[in-house]
Amino acid sequence: MTRVFNFSSGPAVLPESVLRQAAEEMLDWHGSGMSVMEMSHRGPQFMAILDEAQSLFRELLGVPDDYRTLFLQGGAIGEMAIVPMNLLGAKTSIDFVNTGTWSSKAMSEAGRYARINEVASSAATAFDRIPAFETWRLDPDAAYVHICSNETIGGVEYHWTPDTGDVPLVADVSSNILSAPLDVTKFGLLYGGAQKNVGPAGLTLVVVRDDLLGRALPITPCAFDFAQQSDNGSMLNTPPTYAIYIAGLVFRWLKAQGGLVAIEALNLRKAGLLYDTIDASGGFYVNPVAVADRSLMNVPFRLPDARLDAPFLAEAEALGMVQLKGHRSVGGMRASIYNAMPVEGVQRLVDHMLDFARRHG
Ligand SMILES: *Cc1c(COP(=O)(O)O)cnc(C)c1O
């Protein structure tokens, strides 16, 4: 068996120890005689798995007592419609900061339920930065302010949290959740798909402040009504049981790494290796993002000539590194280096970049 270094943007790399444990427990979880996939979601065995995953998630992220954590389905794109249905209440508009593909997608989804107010945008500079907070034209009557904390495709990340006063701040945290400590109290709601930094696709995480519950529009499906899901412990419908089990193992792994402070230090080291290589390449490799807003999770970079992309990727693959091709909307390369990407994987990529630039520069 040969494992590759997988730089996919998602579904993405998982810790090898987690996969090994899941394999060992596949046919018989803890003497139950069955796989987690085969368990009743209301039985004591799965309830123990769910409770542990919930409490580890809350502990790792430091979720305060007045916030609910929901394990749902529908993905981040689902939440882009579900969140407005739940939070609009009697309000009619939502403020959006547009930093790229995913915040644009959130705007178009929410636009079917509310008036969209683009309060700031970096479109004029090809989404290469987070617009300075002083330029945001916030509306005090908005239902909430929406940001995407890490633009997975553009590689642009907030390294600060805006203060939106009494208007709740909502963030799509799909691709940087649990990558570094986060002050949850500054947000009204966080949502994200699991398949970038948490576990398998199919699980959607929502963290919501208590006072925002109970205002869902009458058209909201019960499975997507946060208050009803909260009252039912995320079990109003069958939750994605196997994905929750794997996420729980990832949470255990993350805690064993030392939690979010330790993982952030590691993520800074990994991203630093790549950005230092790009910046020291004399223009051979280019990352277009403003230095202060560069993502620790997704590192896009271009080569001097698009005709070099294919040989760069083919040689990377021969060296055991896959999924480095950039998103079709951006081109070039993208290295996604989530929590579970080992430093050795990033070091191997850096070695390849240095060697390739020497031969083609
Ligand atoms: C991947 C991603 C999405 C899309 O998630 P789905 O699970 O496909 O709905 C949305 N937002 C961000 C920031 C992402 O990285």
Automatic annotation (TrEMBL):
GO process annotations (BP): L-serine biosynthetic process; pyridoxine biosynthetic process
Keywords from the named record: Amino-acid biosynthesis, Aminotransferase, Cytoplasm, Pyridoxal phosphate, Pyridoxine biosynthesis, Serine biosynthesis, Transferase
The keyword Membrane belongs to this UniProt entry's keyword annotation: no
Single Gene Ontology MF annotation: O-phospho-L-serine:2-oxoglutarate aminotransferase activity
Highest taxon in the source lineage: Bacteria
UniProt modified residues of type N6-(pyridoxal phosphate)lysine: K196
Domain (Aminotransferase class V): residue spans on this chain: 4-349
Identification of the protein by name: Phosphoserine aminotransferase
Organism, scientific name: Sphaerotilus mobilis
